[in-house]
Amino acid sequence: MSVAALTHDDRYRVMRFIVLCHRWVGGIAGLLLAVLGLSGALLVHKDLWTVVSHKGDAVVQSGQDVGRLVAQVMTETGKHPQMIAFASPSFGVDRVAYAGGAGAYLDQTGQLLTSWSSDWARPELWLVTLHRYLFMRPAGETVVGIAGFIGLALVILGCIAWWRTRQTFEFRLWPKRMSRPAIIRQHRDLGVVMTPVLLLSFITGVLMVFRPLGGLALGPGAAQAIDHSLRPPHFQSVKIGHDLDWQAMMETAREKFPQAEFRSLALPRKGSGLITIRMRQPSEWLPNGRTMLWFAADTGQLVEARDATLMPVQARAFNDIFPLHTGKVGGIIYKLLMTLSGLTLALLGFLATWTFWFAGGFKPASKKKPQKA
């Protein structure tokens, strides 16, 4: 049965049900969505507000210099880190991460700038954990993904509910008054204006959390292409060698991909026997790149090198989901759009929570039916 075939009373009941669902779901999940929106808006500019000296230094990318830094980190600290995130054009210091949340920032000569024993000591680190895991690693990521689905549903239901009030549209960034009717009117009108960027934020967030959905969204064969492109090569579990030539590994990586930036080095985890180097080529949107090299942990010999630019188009599209979500592509205009998306979600979520719980929003709506036109 089409919508046009519904009676006036039936359309009223359907619309009333949609409004009721939107109100209750928004009232219950609004605070969670607001926290995700605000934290996301802050993380878009993380490199800018992170406090550490030398972050404006020019990036050194020669294989010899980066290899010397890695060798110094591996020998001077007394224990191997889990990962080294190399300096980038937007953040000119290296970050070393150890087990248990400990870490340090180093300048590009290897000099210690600051260190910490827990992610809680650095706001840029615990904010990532909040936004991605709600401080419940790793299970919290699923909760965040479900929140993304809820956000999608709220945007769609909100647009349907707005349609009947479209003739009273008036764009406002802030409610005219802090009364429930004024907040509701500002909520629906601001929400419909920001629908495109809110949908982009929610869809990309959901696809990152639930990778199989990314395979479905990108068409037939996408799941297999993505899995094949991202799966590391098979290699037996071995211990890390005592005298590995780290500089030779980095120089090998530079020879394989002369135009790429060094982005990170990770030591074996979860039974793997591979040292992983990630690089980013100029055509890649993904900030950390998906150009990968794997070296045997016991000998330092190259096992496989994988060029991200030669991946199937569906795998390359999947790699672009993260930069679209985080505003890492498209310059300052797109970054500001994603910031506005996060701030809008925060405002809508906080005010929806307040009106629902403290301004009578949870009370049943009046059952008086509108008169026929």
Automatic annotation (TrEMBL):
InterPro entries: PepSY-ass_TM. It holds the Pfam family PepSY_TM. Keywords: Membrane, Transmembrane, Transmembrane helix. The keyword Transmembrane applies. The chain crosses the membrane at residues 21-44, 143-163, 190-210, 332-359. This is PepSY-associated TM helix domain-containing protein. It comes from Acetobacter indonesiensis. The lineage of its organism: Bacteria, Pseudomonadati, Pseudomonadota, Alphaproteobacteria, Acetobacterales.
